[in-house]
Specification:
By secondary structure, this protein is of the alpha+beta class. It has helices at residues 150-157, 191-196, 201-213, 234-238, 241-256, 285-290, 300-314, 333-342, 361-364, 391-407, and strands at 4-6, 11-14, 18-24, 30-37, 49-50, 56-57, 60-63, 66-70, 80-87, 101-105, 112-115, 125-134, 137-147, 222-228, 261-267, 273-278, 320-326, 348-354, 377-381. The protein has a 7-stranded mixed sheet with strand order 1-11-10-3-8-7-6, with no helix packed on it. Strands 2-13-12-9-4-5 form a 6-stranded antiparallel sheet, covered by helices on one side. Strand 15 and strand 16 (273-278) form a beta hairpin.
Length: 408
């Protein structure tokens, strides 16, 4: 049977039967491992890390360069099986440059394959794929996410208590800074990010640089995130695009508000769902939360109202920036305009970030008129695939107008 090649972020259905995922790596000695995760995106216990010293657990096993998952035997409280490749820690200076390839095989089903884009940032661990429950069956998602923090850092993200491997660190080198502002002006220490979410350290530093370059490095602000949960957004949730977007917002928040959390509001109908994403739980958090929300029409006005109410009830004196992801035009434009105008005196800045497949002209043109009165509003078009926008440009788009608003 003909093989089907998956692209990064794509998903497809599997049979509820044994599946074998075989890793191939060129020019590097690497091990394969797996993690069993519950609905919260964390392991149930340390036994859910399956590696060479613990090669099987609850229907999932490893051998040679393959993970075998008998999907019939996987317990009901396991919602995800994550397949991981890690460079051999005994091999000096071992990092991935050529991405591992993965072949997925099931009886009486065409083979699948996936090769992630190559890596350039010293990645020692790669999440290759994720098996996850959907309705009453199973699906597989091609992930291809690299980490420079090692298997111990990855395992910690998923809640495994492991002994970190000793690492020889190179001598520290000062990072390049803007000519207009020294590195000491970065708004917060990022040690909390390094400790709780090391994978977010690079984007957090890039976000901090964007704030320094715009002379607002010492300013504080409460960061909120509103996510469109209209049914037209379903594939963007499935492809991890919304999860990745939320992670980048969390990295920005670490520079503006060091409590390590961002309130998240899902815009869906008259009852917007409010939760939070934190440095210590961000892995898979959006996927976990959004499954608790019905697909429907994205009522952005009600979600905005919920954000303002939360901000007022918190009693903070710092301003707020509400990053509102929109995939289509609002159904009640007059109500949105009214909310924008009425919140101007509250210290709330609205940044509408467009990505999706709908029409966004309403948001793009909010301040297009010479008579526009929305001094606390901006729009940033993150393209149909915000994950393809480099951090430098992404954070510039997020903070440019917000910085000008803060300064005035």
């Amino acid at each position: 049977m003909q093989s089907t090649s998956l692209r990064k972020g794509e998903n497809t259905a599997l049979l509820t039967a044994p599946v074998v995922l075989t890793m191939t790596v060129q020019g590097l000695s690497a091990d394969v491992s797996a993690l069993l995760l519950g609905a919260d995106g964390k392991v149930r216990s340390d036994d859910d890390l399956i590696f060479y010293n613990h090669p099987s657990q609850d229907g999932v096993s490893i051998g040679a360069s393959a993970v075998t998952a008998d999907l019939v035997r996987v317990p009901a409280d396991v919602k995800h099986v994550v397949v991981v490749a890690s460079a051999d820690p005994l091999q000096p200076d071992a990092v991935f440059t050529r991405a591992p390839s993965l072949t997925i095989q099931q009886p009486n089903s065409p083979d699948l394959s996936f090769t992630a884009p190559d890596f350039t940032s010293g990645e020692t661990v790669v999440v290759l794929a994720e098996l996850y429950r959907r309705d009453r069956g199973w699906k597989i998602r091609a992930v291809g996410q690299g980490y420079a923090s090692g298997l111990a850092g990855l395992a910690t993200d998923y809640g495994v208590d492991v002994e970190p491997e000793p690492v020889m660190l190179p001598a520290s080198t000062p990072e390049p800074t803007s000519r207009n502002a020294p590195a000491a002006r970065l708004p917060v220490e990022l040690s909390k990010v390094e400790q709780l979410a090391p994978r977010l350290l690079t984007p957090a530093r890039q976000a901090g640089k964007a704030l320094v370059d715009r002379d607002i490095a010492n300013r504080r602000a409460a960061v909120y995130l509103i996510l469109d949960h209209d049914s037209s957004m379903e594939d963007l949730y499935d492809s991890f695009a919304v999860q990745a977007f939320a992670e980048r917002v969390l990295a920005l928040s670490a520079n503006l508000d060091d409590d390590g959390s961002v309130p998240v509001i899902f815009s869906s109908g008259d009852q917007p769902f409010l939760e939070e994403i934190r440095l210590d739980n961000y892995r898979g958090r959006i996927e976990q939360l959004h499954t608790q929300v019905d697909w429907g029409w994205g009522n952005v006005a009600e979600a905005m109202r919920r954000a303002v109410r939360h901000y007022q009830e918190a009693g903070v004196t710092d301003p707020a920036v509400v990053i509102t992801q929109v995939g289509d035009e609002p159904w009640d434009k007059a109500e949105v305009r009214s909310l924008l105008q009425n919140s101007a005196a509250l210290g709330v800045f609205w940044l509408f970030v467009g990505f999706g497949r709908g029409k966004l002209a309403f948001y793009k043109n909010l301040n297009a008129s010479a008579s526009a009165t929305f001094t606390n509003v901006a729009f940033y078009d993150a393209s149909k695939n915000p994950g393809s926008v480099p951090d430098e440009h992404f954070y510039a788009g997020l903070v440019d107008a917000f910085a000008a608003w803060l300064r005035h």
